[in-house]
Specification:
Distance between the termini: 21 Å
Strand order of the largest sheet: 4-3-5-2-1-6-10-11-9
CATH class: Alpha Beta
Radius of gyration: 17 Å
Number of domains: 1
Order of helices and strands: EHHEHHEEHEHEEEEHHEHE
Number of helices: 9
Number of strands: 11
CATH topology: Carbamate kinase
Largest sheet: 9 strands, mixed
Shape: globular
CATH superfamily: Acetylglutamate kinase-like
Strand content: 15-25%
Length: 243
Amino acid sequence: MPKVKYKRVLLKLSGEVFGGKQKYGIDPETLSVIAKEIKEVKKYNVDLAVIIGGGNIFRGISGFASGMDRATADYMGMLATIINALALQDALEKEGVWSRVQTAIEMRSVAEPFIRRRAMRHMQKGRVVILAAGTGNPYFSTDTAAALRAAELDADVILKATKVGGVFDKDPAKHPNAKMYKKLDYLEILNKKLKIMDSTAISLCMDNDIPIVVFDLTKHGNIARVVLGQNVGTVVSDGKTKA
């Protein structure tokens, strides 16, 4: 079996990915593909936690922009992530991958509350831990939640799954000549205002020395390639350590 580079991984998925081509709701075919990709990674005995956004159902910041109370809109966005988490759990278990959903907002009839040591024990037993409801607090994005949970769970890396190859100097969808970076440090992300994660999330990763790999989820096998240390996507770190 190939040697993995990252033994404990936090995978960050946007809610929009679950919507497939329509970009809203939950597309069963897309969900099945994601579950198969995760199953492939689990063959390498990697400890895996997944944190999911809710933008395919409701995005808190959009609700706020439309005139809603910010805290109310953010809580609605957190509930959307729980729907996505349950959908992913169902898709994983159809593939024979055992998982547990843990939420930052207590909802005991459908999921466990987030408890750090319990989450770590699930991973040690080979289960995928699906983290929902962000941090449980308004005004914080799921990017920030990913950075926080990665630090709490002693993750070796955050894998930021996107629909493009990595981090670009400008939007590749609008600019065919956009340049993709292979490596960046945290301060470059902040100084250049590259919108891969919000500044709070980047600062948390920098303070806790957690590298981030931004990669294209739509290419089959990319999650496994990153875990194995292959040259995929853009690596964000301090340039000296793990990545």
